[in-house]
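Notes, p. 3: input format for complexes.
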Amino acid sequence: MAAVFEATTLAGMRLASRIIRSATHEGVGDGDDFPAKLIERYSRLAAGGAGAIITGYAGVSRGGRAWPNMLMIDDDAYIPAFRAVTDAVRPYGAPLVLQLAHGGGRTEPAVTGEAAKAPSRYRYKGAGSTARELTAGEIERIIAAFVQGVVRARRSGFAGAQVHAAHGYLLAAFLSPALNRRRDRWGGSTENRFRIVGEIIGRARQAVGAFPLLVKLSAYDFDAGGLRLDEAVRLARLCEAASFDAIEVSCGNDNFFAVVRPRRLPVAAILELTPALREAPWLKKKLAALVIPRLFPLCDETENYNVAAAAAIKAAVGIPVSVVGGIRRLAAMEAIVAAGQADYVSLCRPFIVEPDIVARLREGRQDGSRCIDCDYCLVGVGGGPLKCFYGRLPAGR
Ligand SMILES: Cc1cc2nc3c(=O)[nH]c(=O)nc-3n(C[C@H](O)[C@H](O)[C@H](O)COP(=O)(O)O)c2cc1C
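Output follows (397 residues plus flavin mononucleotide):
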């Protein structure tokens, strides 16, 4: 049997295949019925053969809530709800890993009730407001919030936790030389920019011991003066030294369409599925349609686009590495694992269109994903539960 369908142990977790569901914001965190919705989604993924399931990101503190419908883990009161989810999904066998995040400069005051905050003052592409610089005291509180998040993940019955340090969110912004221009102990050298992540894993490890702790890293971005692969390799080594159990390699910081790459920019979807733009006057929409392509230049590579970066990181560390980004064909998955470019492959959009994609590949029913990389799922999930639009706007739009 191909190595991708072989059972493995990752930081003590038993995975039935090497194909992992990468963290995917499900857009259901705004209702009290979110456990039932998560149980339905994760049960389908687990029954469909996902090796492990990384949840959509869960906010570790109120100020880090990136969307009104984001999952939250900033209070012990959430533990029974998440416990219901982990208890219901456990019989399927696939480990469930809670992703922990702080939205940083990608948050909006209208959602959090407070100013957006980032390592340094910054306005993200397309953001409604400019983030202000965090104080040293606020950084300490955010570290404590992540540690609490890890503790709550374990108490909720998750098999592990993943710290989200990719995609321009708060921790990724600290790692990026373009987004972190601080002159104190939290900025400057690679070690200083890594310090917040190091403090989180160090204190979390003391609190939870051998509990599996994973990290998702952007290995490079396209920002002027941003993160480049050689520095990401050093960051990956720091992650290993700080006791992370595995690294998931992604990319991109300010340009989200470099993270989740579409074949064409989904301008119509942005105009019709983004709550802030849907009801906007005609002229504003017209202007937005002109500005969007300038803000978000497309990347040429849309398949397997982080494999070379993952291979460089894999060669530099001793802990398992997974790679995510445009992986669609079984042949590519097999080649990545066979060549030792990564130990695992992580997929996001393919699981949205086909939650049982792993079973389909394993049984030879398909040799790849049906995903067309339209990115409507990504645009639509801010305003409603995650779904596959398959490149079509809902009727009437
Ligand atoms: C709808 C949607 C939601 C996402 N939510 C998250 C998330 O919560 N956390 C995260 O780390 N990445 C998130 N991502 C990024 C994916 O995990 C992944 O890194 C990216 O989509 C590239 O993988 P793919 O080509 O297999 O889709 C999201 C992507 C999409 C399309």
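The chain has a mean pLDDT of 97.
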